[in-house]
């Protein structure tokens, strides 16, 4: 009874201790998680803390440079650029997180099944993935959104679809390598079913490289959404979104109104930079070998 009481009490402490150890061990990881927290705060509370309505127009304040009233200046319609940049964080992060989550789940399931059982399932999956990868991925996303309509939901679906091959192939390779490993054979000999062996013994060991892929795809998903908006196939104005704001501001760079495109582009760059830096930290956090 004493051991049963102690073990549950140690699990949360062990998880937190491991997380803190990873953050302390790698300053870059700590920086990336700090930047991610910065973007999360904007996503959750940005609409409450911005000084101006991001949709309010005022022709008298059009194209004002950065000042104490408008920290990032104003755009061609007199809207506060700082407020729009901050509020746009929620939409861009939502698109990125949901698209990557969908592609992660679908790709992981398909790749795990193909890698573990192989046979005709593996052959069919590989041909489907080859077909998707044969297209330039951004062009494929453009075609999907153009066909279905440029709504936020369709942008998420298109971005998720073109990311599925990355996870499916990665998981397939990892599972295929480990399905005959000693720990997997021991799990089956202990009475575990094939499903339980795959889900609870093999798949967790495939997570570390997948976390690196997740972080890279998060940044790429934001760029994909911004790129679609930049060419007019993404989120529709006047909704605040970084890609739209960069596209609108590009028309005013030559005239000297650099701030209209600079600040949304800077936020976009920082978000992608943050996700790219998080990969190693996420890998170390979920790696079972790092917990020993």
UniProtKB/TrEMBL annotation:
Keywords: Cell membrane, Membrane, Peptide transport, Protein transport, Transmembrane, Transmembrane helix, Transport. It comes from the Bacteria. Its main location: membrane. It is a multi-pass membrane protein. InterPro entries: BP-dependent_transpt_permease, MetI-like, MetI-like_sf, OppC_N. Residues 89-279 form the ABC transmembrane type-1 domain. The keyword Nucleotidyltransferase does not apply. The chain crosses the membrane at residues 28-50, 93-116, 128-149, 218-236, 256-279. Pfam families: BPD_transp_1, OppC_N. Belongs to the binding-protein-dependent transport system permease family. PANTHER family: D,D-DIPEPTIDE TRANSPORT SYSTEM PERMEASE PROTEIN DDPC-RELATED, OLIGOPEPTIDE TRANSPORT SYSTEM PERMEASE PROTEIN APPC. This is ABC transporter permease. It comes from Marivita lacus.
């Amino acid at each position: 009874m004493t051991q049963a009481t102690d073990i549950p009490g140690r699990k949360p402490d062990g998880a937190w201790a491991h997380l803190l150890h990873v953050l302390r061990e790698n300053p870059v990881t700590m920086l990336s998680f700090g930047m991610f927290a910065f973007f999360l705060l904007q996503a959750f509370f940005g609409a409450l803390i911005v000084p101006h309505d991001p949709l309010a127009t005022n022709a008298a304040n059009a194209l004002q440079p950065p000042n104490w009233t408008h920290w990032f200046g104003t755009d061609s319609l007199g809207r506060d650029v700082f407020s729009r940049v901050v509020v746009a964080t929620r939409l861009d992060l939502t698109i990125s997180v949901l698209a990557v989550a969908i592609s992660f789940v679908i790709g992981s399931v398909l790749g795990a099944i193909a890698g573990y059982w192989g046979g005709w399932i593996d052959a069919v999956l590989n041909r489907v993935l080859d077909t998707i990868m044969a297209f330039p991925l951004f062009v494929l996303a453009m075609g999907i959104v153009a066909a279905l309509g440029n709504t936020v939901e369709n942008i998420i679906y298109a971005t998720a679809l073109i990311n599925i091959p990355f996870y499916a192939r990665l998981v397939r390779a990892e599972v295929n390598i480990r399905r005959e490993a000693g720990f997997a054979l021991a799990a089956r000999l202990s009475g575990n079913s094939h499903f339980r062996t795959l889900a609870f013994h093999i798949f967790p060991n495939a997570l570390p490289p997948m976390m690196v892929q997740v972080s890279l795809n998060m940044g790429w998903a934001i760029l994909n959404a911004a790129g679609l908006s930049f060419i007019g196939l993404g989120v529709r104005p006047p909704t605040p979104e970084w890609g739209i704001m960069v596209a609108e501001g590009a028309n005013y760079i030559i005239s000297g109104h650099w701030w209209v495109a600079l600040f949304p582009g800077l936020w976009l760059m920082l978000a992608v930079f943050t996700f790219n830096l998080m990969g190693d930290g996420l890998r170390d956090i979920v790696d079972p070998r790092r917990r020993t």
